[in-house]
What we know:
By secondary structure, the protein is of the alpha+beta class.
Amino acid sequence: MKNYTEQPPRLFLKFFRWFCHPRMLDYIEGDLLEVYKVRVKKLGKRKADIKFMIDVLLLFRPGIIKPPGKYRNVNNPVMIRNYLKIGYRNIAKNKGYSFINVTGLALSITCAIFIFSFVKYNLSFDNFHQNPDRIYRIVTELHRDVIAYRSSVPSPLGEFFRNDHTYGEKIARVFTERNALITLRNGDNLVKFEETEGIAFSETEFFDIFNFPLLQGYKEEVLAEPNTAIITERIAKKYFGDKDAVGETFWLQNKFPFTVTGILKDLPSNTDIKSEIFVSYSTLKAYDPWLASDTDGWGGIRDGMKCYTLLRPNTSITKVEEVLSAYVKIYRPTSKNVHHYKLQPLADIHFNSNYGGAMAKSNLTIVFVIGLFLIVTACVNFVNLATAQALKRSKEVGVRKVLGSLKTQLFWQFIFETGIITFAGIVIAAILSYTIFPFVNQFFNTQIPVNVFSDPYLVVFIVALGIAVTFFAGSYPGLVLAGFQPVAALKGKLSRQTIGGFNTRRTLIVVQFAISQVLIIGMVVITNQMRYTQQSDLGFNKDAIVLVAMANGTTREQAKTMKTEIQRIPGVEKLSLCFTAPSSEEDWGNSIRFENSSEEVNFRTSIKSADADYISTFDLKLVAGRNIQPSDTVREMIINEAMVRKLELKSAEDAIGKMITANGGSMYAPIVGVVKDFHDKSFHEEISPILITTYTNDYLNYAVKLNLAEAKYTIAAIEKLWLRQHPDQIFKYQFVDESIERFYESEKTTLRLIQIFSFIAIIIGCLGLYGLVSFMVSQKTKEIGIRKVLGGTASHIVWIFGQEFTRLIVVAFLIAAPIGWWFMNDWLQDFKFHTTIGLSTFMLAIGCSLVVAAATVCYQVIRTAMANPVKSLRIE
């Protein structure tokens, strides 16, 4: 019996080990000995020894192995050119495989470029100022039964902080009046503009804190005098054309003239300071005496009043907040609405939703994770198809290894092939990004700059992403190919386990489907929540009601006269004079006293000023008492059920006749009615305690209930009547249902993103699944032919393939369902009123996956199953 464990000739083995570089031993000696053992078994010891000696001598021919000290670099320029050439040939040979991979990578990289630009743009907000780490905004926490957050402060706080303490190197107060009416006068001609971002009454130190450079004028002088202003280049061109704007005059609300004393460089898009008109703060005394007062101003907070400070270096934030807390004890000692003044870092302003931040960091995290999912999905496609294709390349690998190729050479060859595919995907993605980004900005209402070829950060990101994708997608298939045993490869006896195994591909397919299903679950939950906000009963009627803004300076009598005339217009069904709609971003918070109590209640109340027609116009439901009577003064009040609960009354009927004192004592009247709760803000917030009364000084709108069939003509008639009364102002109106929809702009943007990315993830998954099924079908062509000859039907053959993928989808669902539920349940917690995640959500996710997989698998399998079995059997 032969001893198959005998060693080859020692002399040649020593010769090989002596002249072979140690690194070479790891790659070649094991293969030589493996081949030797096979030969001993088949040919005998003597013949195996001869062939071993020949193999060793052949290895030392030029270009294979060189003596120690001259061991060649496997990645020298010649080899790299060779890798690229072979890689290009293999890609060209397998066009379908290459198309699937390039398309998947191009789509995912395009999304990655958008997401990188989106995240980078949001992270760049207000980071261009000098000393941004020392710039803070003073904000207010209102502590009552709940904590409320305001980005504003009482107007005197900034002046007191400047005079009393030295912590602030610079301090500036800014009051922004939104939707400002600006007029220009040229003889008898009047040109009107509405500035939605408003006009900012600013102290001069504002421009010492923030880096908004002046192109004309000196920042120490431009706003030093009352009725002076500086405007941006864009506004200067808009108002005055090509004329020099310095020295020109414009009017605010047709009452307050301002002379332009400086021109600012246009504000960048990545700043949360949006006003492009800055006027002298000293003019605020004429515009709003109460707000400008350093004594009366402690009594409340106006939303537009901000205070910024540039702290001195190494100043303790804790100490500053301690000295700010003293103002509460001094100036608001009896108020139950306890203020806590805090310092908000500049870097936090854009992201903190408590203080009106435009973009929550959690949304950026969601977008980043989605982008990562898409990249992983494309890489999974690549790995799946590459390992599936490896069987076709087994003999190529076997020949290369027998001729002396190292594992590292084979590995790097496949990495370079992957690199070529990745590079093609990057080129297509760059072209797509450059082409479609203007439409993306328009679709999402953003101003994200994308300079694919000139932004150094984006270029570095794309290069880094390309390298990461190349190694992530190419490493495992490269290791699989490089690890083939040459004898088994040349004999075609490699098993599926040897080439990565179908278990590996099963795992990758499960990962791919799990990612898609998580995205689908997220899309379904957000869609259901948006539908819930639109279809839920808000407690009032929002349909076909338009709010027409009153003209500035409208008197009580003018408003009543206009109301009478509007009611005569055909198509007007109901009309009310009011502060705002029942649900609105506008809010007048107030503290009240109940009955004969000398102390204020410990909760905040929202006052809705409105006349007696408010209840019927918005179809509010009375649950107790009656409606208020028409009046020009505060004589009666209506409250909501939330107020009844806050007052700890047993029932709505118990509230009737009780007295309420509000607005610092200027309102004192009995409760005559209780209305059913209605949503006064978005579904993110609880329903506030509401007080409705006839406070005419606060009427700002005509709420008009229209006949929708004639709405277009009715609004035109109202506009004509309105402008006849106020020719020097701008007619403005908005539908109530449209204003409510604006509560959820952030959620709508997130929904659009998830919809698009889910669709792209499904496309990438379909491409990969199609390629994998095509390969499996080609491997089982003969088996399909035999089954058909033996009586197998097309449906039976489809099921053979389909059941495998069905099991994988179910496994993916079992992974995706808890992950999707956890993420989306956490997202829903941001809403005080929200839908539930029901079974239908998960059924829809798995159903979509099954339908997509079935459509992808069935097309390829049915085409093969319907083919003539004779042709199938002749293939081999």
